[in-house]
Structure formats: structure tokens, C-alpha cells
């Protein structure tokens, strides 16, 4: 882990009308680590991620990236920093093949003609770099892929663009045991390759299998951010359900806890 987080959020507030969803939320995300973002339904996970990705403008607080304070006004600005988000619906087109999906909206061209050779080479290199071996052909239609393969393509699409922070929204939610193991291996590999990974998950087994750090949200506040090795399943569940853990001596902390 590097000493300086690549992504730092400080005192983030976000409201929708009269409803305040995020209250003074802080978060540190480090390169080479998987940070699991956990919390019950309605805790604010999706809103926080959309603030990171530029879909929602923050109402207050600071957004720091690579040691500099920045302002992110949209997904393109977040992507320009190196932030990519893989949402739960994956945003893949069933009627297109793997290469077409990976370059959708960012196609390589030679003049007015699509540069299929370059796109195929980059897609192959990206999948090989992630040690993906379950895809038979990069020209397979996405509709023919399994759930695990689809998730793999969505993740590969995210890391294709020199991304530095990859946010994964419930990547194993609809997968069986074998496909879950495959995706978790890929998540771990992303961090081992130096990327900062934020994993949103309700599955504590997945969280403890791959994460280095756990950030627990409770009713729109950051209850704690702790090293995974320092907590137990029951302590994390307590943070999620009550916003505190007596065993850890933590009680409604809005900051980042070691």
C-alpha cells in the first residue's frame, strides 16, 4: 500500500431535496488495494459511488485525486482522471461482440473506417493481462456468454482505458459458486496489478476473501474504515446494522479509522 491514497473524499454531503443521503462522509482508497464498501440498503453506497463517478454533484466536501483537490462535474471528467465504474447492470449490449462492447463509444478509427485490427489487439492484450482464459473468442456475442464471463468483459472494458480506480458494484450478486470464484480472482488480480479497487458487496464471504480494507456506511455516515485483518464478520455486521462496534471501540465515526 502506498502512503498517499489515490482517491480521498473528505466531508462529502449529498442531498436530494429535503432528504440528506450522505453526511460528512470521508473515504481513502489506495492503489494496490481492494477497499470493500459495505452497508445496508439505503446506507448511501450507490449515492457515494455516483458522486465518485461524477453522476451526482457533491453538495459539500472535498474530492482529492492523486494528491490534488479536483472538481468532477460528470462521468467524462471522472473517466479522464482514471475512474471507471462497473455498475450492476454491466451496461453491455447483447447484440454486439466482446470487442464492440469494450470499445463502445470509444471506437478506434483510421480516418472514417473502424480500425478493427487495433481494437482486437488491445482487447486481446487487456484480457490476457488480466489472465482471462474462459473466453473462447473476442468476437463472441455477449449474449452467448455466461454471467461470470459477462462480468469479466465489463471489468476488462473498465481497465482498458488506463484506469487507476475501478469501482465494482455487486459483481458477484447474480453468479453461482464457480463463477463467483472466477470474478473474485479477477478482482484480486486488478489490485495486485496496482489498481485501486472499490468493491461494493453484501456478501461478507466475498468481502473477507479479497478486500484489504473495509469501509462501512450506516445511514449515510461512514461508521468506520478498517483493515480487513483487524475485524471479524460479526464486527462488520455490527457496523452495518448499528453504525458502531463495541469490540472495536468505534461509535459513529465519520472519519477514516486505521
TrEMBL record:
This is ATP-binding cassette domain-containing protein. One of its GO terms (molecular function) is ATP binding. It comes from the Bacteria. Keywords: ATP-binding, Nucleotide-binding. Residues 7-244 form the ABC transporter domain. InterPro entries: AAA+_ATPase (IPR003593), ABC_carbohydrate_import_ATPase (IPR050107), ABC_transporter-like_ATP-bd (IPR003439), P-loop_NTPase (IPR027417). PANTHER family: CARBOHYDRATE TRANSPORT ATP-BINDING PROTEIN MG119-RELATED, SUGAR ABC TRANSPORTER ATP-BINDING PROTEIN. Gene3D superfamilies: P-loop containing nucleotide triphosphate hydrolases.
Amino acid at each position: 500500500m502506498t502512503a498517499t491514497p489515490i482517491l480521498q473524499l473528505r466531508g462529502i454531503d449529498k442531498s436530494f431535496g429535503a432528504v440528506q443521503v450522505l453526511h460528512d462522509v470521508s473515504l481513502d482508497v489506495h492503489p494496490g488495494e481492494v477497499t470493500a464498501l459495505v452497508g445496508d440498503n439505503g446506507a448511501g453506497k450507490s449515492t457515494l459511488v455516483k458522486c465518485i463517478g461524477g453522476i451526482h454533484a457533491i453538495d459539500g466536501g472535498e474530492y482529492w485525486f492523486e494528491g490534488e483537490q479536483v472538481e468532477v462535474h460528470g462521468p467524462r471528467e471522472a473517466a479522464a482522471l482514471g475512474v471507471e465504474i462497473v455498475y450492476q447492470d454491466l451496461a453491455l449490449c447483447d447484440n454486439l461482440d466482446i470487442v464492440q462492447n469494450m470499445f463502445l463509444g470509444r471506437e478506434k478509427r483510421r480516418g472514417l473506417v473502424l480500425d478493427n485490427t487495433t481494437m482486437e489487439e488491445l482487447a486481446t492484450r487487456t484480457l490476457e493481462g488480466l489472465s482471462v482464459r474462459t473466453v473462447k473468442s473476442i468476437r463472441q456475442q455477449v449474449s452467448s456468454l455466461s454471467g461470470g464471463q459477462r462480468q469479466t468483459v465489463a471489468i476488462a472494458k473498465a481497465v482498458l482505458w488506463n484506469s487507476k480506480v475501478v469501482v465494482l458494484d455487486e459483481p458477484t450478486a447474480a453468479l453461482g459458486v464457480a463463477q463467483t470464484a472466477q470474478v473474485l480472482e479477477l478482482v484480486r488480480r486488478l489490485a495486485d496489478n496496482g489498481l485501486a479497487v472499490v468493491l461494493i458487496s453484501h456478501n461478507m464471504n466475498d468481502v473477507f476473501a479479497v478486500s484489504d480494507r473495509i469501509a462501512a456506511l450506516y445511514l449515510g455516515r461512514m461508521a468506520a474504515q478498517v483493515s480487513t485483518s483487524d475485524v471479524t464478520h460479526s464486527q462488520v455486521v455490527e457496523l452495518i446494522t448499528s453504525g458502531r462496534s463495541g469490540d472495536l471501540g468505534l461509535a459513529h465515526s465519520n472519519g477514516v479509522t486505521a
